[in-house]
Amino acid sequence: MTSATQDLKPVLFVLTSHSVKGETGEYTGFYLGEVTHPLAVLDAAGIPVEFASIAGGEPPVDGLDLNDAVNARYWNSEGFRHAIRNTSRLSDVDPKDYSAIFFAGGHGAMWDFPTSPAVNSVARDIYEAGGVVAAVCHGPAALVNITLSSGAHLVAGKNVAAFTDDEERAVKLDKTVPFLLASTLSARGAHHHPAADWAAKIVVDGRLVTGQNPQSATGVGEALRDLLTA
């Protein structure tokens, strides 16, 4: 732990609790690599992390690719598994305890992040206290309904990245998700910056950090680390 991180409040990682893709009956949840890859960056920097989910307890996991060395390292760690099995309910956390909030993706986020009052209140309080808000892939679904104390959308006028409409069509879920994420962020006044499908894209606008897809997860972690240790 460095002098830049020794007094830093934890980063709150928020995971979806939603496990079904719409009416398809197909399983979903949080995408493991979008948790482990940013976590690895923060762990290496000595930045503490805590976990919450919309419903609390053990959230559903998707993208369980154990050929990914970072995934395998954490999935085989009893400490990580214990933390994931025992997430706090987001509505129970105190925003004052955290330096930043990070919304991991996975298709489940499209259903419960935008409709959660706690997403709105906790993220707004952290942001307005000078903290960082970060999200990757479908994690920016959390951002579509977050409003500031002024009533303005958090993303209004902000530069962002998120899972693109083209990527949603490529995975053939554009008719399954409740809305198209990139289009909806743009409708909220955000300036969405797409890269090519599956190319890493990270956008930092002040204390807002967003990434386009799983390939962007490490970069979002790095940008979050750099803001917190600046």
TrEMBL record:
Keywords, ordered alphabetically: Glutamine amidotransferase, Lyase, Plasmid, Stress response
Coiled-coil positions: none
CDD domains, alphabetized: GATase1_Hsp31_like
Top-level taxon of the source organism: Bacteria
Domain DJ-1/PfpI, residue spans: 33-218
Gene3D superfamilies membership: 3.40.50.880
Species of origin: Sinorhizobium kummerowiae
InterPro entries, per database record: Class_I_gatase-like, DJ-1/PfpI, Prot/Nucl_acid_deglycase
Family membership noted in the UniProt record: Belongs to the peptidase C56 family. HSP31-like subfamily.
Protein name as catalogued: Type 1 glutamine amidotransferase domain-containing protein
